[in-house]
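Now for today's protein.

===
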Amino acid sequence: MRALKSSADPLENDLARVYDHWQEVKRNRGQQAGLGYEPRDINALGAVSVIASRVLKVSVGFEEVDPNQSYEALVLKYPERFSDDVIAAAQERLKLGASKVNQFLQQDIQFFIKSSAIELFGENGVRPSAESWVGRKAHLPELHRENSYAEKS
């Protein structure tokens, strides 16, 4: 974190702020505020490579943070540093995230199942359009009352 904060690269400075935000969100939820393998991966591969990889693999955590404090937001802020496919994936995830939250909140009955594309569809990555998801079969876990909770933000 210190290396990112003291870097001359503005992308790395912003990445440090994203990580600070992510850790604060975790602390506020009573969770451990670690960064997992992120520091190791950044040291080995570089910030741009790690961000691109996480965006293309639809890494978990996006739903937990402010979209403006996400890898996807960094891709759009520094598009010259990323390939077209990474930019498209970031745009799609941010667009879908905002529209799906609004649709969800307008429903009379709301169920939210947090999962990943791998768990639901058995594949990695973000599909290029919302239409490409239509008609897909997904495996949804069983909901049990004793394991459920309600939370409204």
Q: What stands out?
A: The two ends are 30 Å apart (CA to CA). Residues 1-92 form one domain. Residues 84-106 form the longest helix (23 residues).
